Model the fold of this input.
Amino acid sequence: MRYRFHTLDVFTDQPFSGNPLAVLPEASGLTAAQMQTLAREFNLSETVFILPPRDPAHTHTLRIFTPTAELPFAGHPTLGAAWLLTALGAIPLQEPTTTLVFEEGVGPVTAEITVDRGQPTFARLAAAQMPVQGPTPPEPALLAEVLTLEIVDLADGDGRPETWSGGVPFLCVPLRDRTALRRARLNQERWAATLADQAWMSQVYPFCGGPADPTQFHVRMFAPALGVAEDPATGAAAVAFAGYLARQAGSKTGRQRWQLMQGEDFGRPSRLTVEAEWTEGQLRSVWVGGAAVLMSTGEIDVPELPA
Done:
């Protein structure tokens, strides 16, 4: 059968930057095996398949695949799907905000599209699961080896590596500065021997603070276990990172907004906005947002796969 697809650049307002995404807006009839084959064919960090909702109160069901695995949740496919449906007129736009609710593996995910003069201008999603902290990471010396760095390249002071998950787990590793982050390279051999089979640690998320703005961070994300050598922008990681940042803020009650810069070191600059609110030390809400650009439209023939 022939299926229509679109590609978008997400977490950017400029073409040929951000995180590329393939979207199949009418994916009914595809099996999970066919979806995985298509994701491998597109070979982007994620491909999202839009299906009718199981609950009529929701907008659609989303199934999200990397080239090697299905994910219960991912940020840029969720935002890209919302942006595409509104940009194509499949979901009527209401100013100033249009709300959609997607069924994903983590549960219902709310997405909001900011509308100005009949056009989408910004998209954000509410985390369906609040970030939770995971097990203690390995010693800093091992993490430096995995990132092909020296131990002095890791941040000192109060910042420590931690594992966090908002549905998908990430190993957050603070580095000393932007130079160290730029030099980081995943050592595949050390990663495979130490972290690859650790569910909470196989996705490695090094970061550093912006030198002039305490609310700005530069981040990278390596996920070879998911078929993604390095991701230009990672919404699910931004959700998890909000837990780290909220804990680092040190206040029992607060609200904060951060800017994350990702993909800068390989020509796909991305900007993610993260907002979190917490009360008595407990996270109450996390939002991740950005813009998107529709890049292409086409059709693809999907043959039946052997059982």
Summary: The mean pLDDT is 95. DSSP finds six helices and 17 strands in the chain. Residues 132-284 form a domain with the Diaminopimelate Epimerase; Chain A, domain 1 fold (CATH 3.10.310.10).
